[in-house]
Amino acid sequence: MTLATLAARIRQDIVLYGALAANLGIAVAKFVAAGISGSSSMLTEGVHSLVDSGNQILLLYGQKRAKRAPDAAHPFGYGRELYFWAFVVAILIFAVGAGVSIYEGWKHIRTPEPLLDPVINYVVLGVAVALEGTSWTLAAREFAAAKGDMPWWRAIRESKDPAGFIVLFEDSAALAGLLIAGVGVWASHHWNDPRIDGAASIAIGVILALVAIILARESKGLLIGERADPEVIARVAGVVAAHPGVVAVNHVRTIHTAPDSIFVAISADFDDNLTMGEGERMIEDLEDRLRAAEPRLSSIYIRPERREDAAVVAVPGPAA
């Protein structure tokens, strides 16, 4: 792991711990406010914050498990375990966060409860916006630094580290939910209709469901296995092609075994005049050059193969 990668990992842990602390405090405050005021949307928001807290714990756990060294049972390491827990987080947001929100909203629309003093709701919502806004700012700043000049949506699609964009999505959904909850509390008291508060709870549930679907889709792709960034693939192909003993590069195939770990398999046509010993030394030299060019390459396999015998695969271009 390079110093830059280690520094990025530390900053990301700070983002997760910050989000966890904020969500735990907010969840307690929301549940107290919901108990005093009887607000459905506040109860929903409390569940939302509690689920988010559990999600950050799972992501931290997944990061810890993913750092385990390779062994006989898992020769390429445990890095992709983080992707599994990211997928679990998406399922929890959908099943618990969205499910409870929609159910509570439907229940309060069907059997409205008398409205109580909403002042405490507004106080809690104001504090929650401040805390969630701080957490969102940290997550957005970290993700912006990681993505560079890449557009936001493309950066999310190309990201191989789910912890960063999951916190960003969760905090964005939380801020949207707080806005809807505030409008729901105000409108239900303004028109003296508690069913509006229930409708706000359903709206929050719908937002959570949409976020969960997006996160599940991205996490599923990582869990199944995604190739490295096209720039990395092109860099690898360029290093191999530049070697004087290589006639042609047939294909470069990659897969992320962790956010900062890449497995690469290369098929190349070697000069026919090379002896077996010269070919072995050339492969060792190529591996050294590739690791110097791309430190994230954890496993490198180079296969000498005549061009007409190889299944030539085009190097993928940037995602749309």
Automatic annotation (TrEMBL):
Residues of the Cation efflux protein cytoplasmic domain: 229-305
Membrane-topology descriptor: Multi-pass membrane protein
UniProt GO BP: zinc ion transport
Sequence intervals crossing the membrane: 14-36, 82-103, 123-144, 165-187, 199-217
Key words of the record: Membrane, Transmembrane, Transmembrane helix, Transport
InterPro entries documented for this protein: Cation_efflux, Cation_efflux_CTD, Cation_efflux_CTD_sf, Cation_efflux_TM, Cation_efflux_TMD_sf, SLC30A9
Presence of keyword Zinc: no
Domain Cation efflux protein transmembrane positions: 19-223
GO molecular function annotation: monoatomic cation transmembrane transporter activity
GO cellular component: membrane
Subcellular localization(s) per the UniProt record: Membrane
UniProt-listed Pfam families: Cation_efflux, ZT_dimer
Matches recorded under NCBIfam families: CDF (TIGR01297)
Similarity section: Belongs to the cation diffusion facilitator (CDF) transporter (TC 2.A.4) family.
Protein name: Cation transporter
Record organism: Sphingomonas adhaesiva
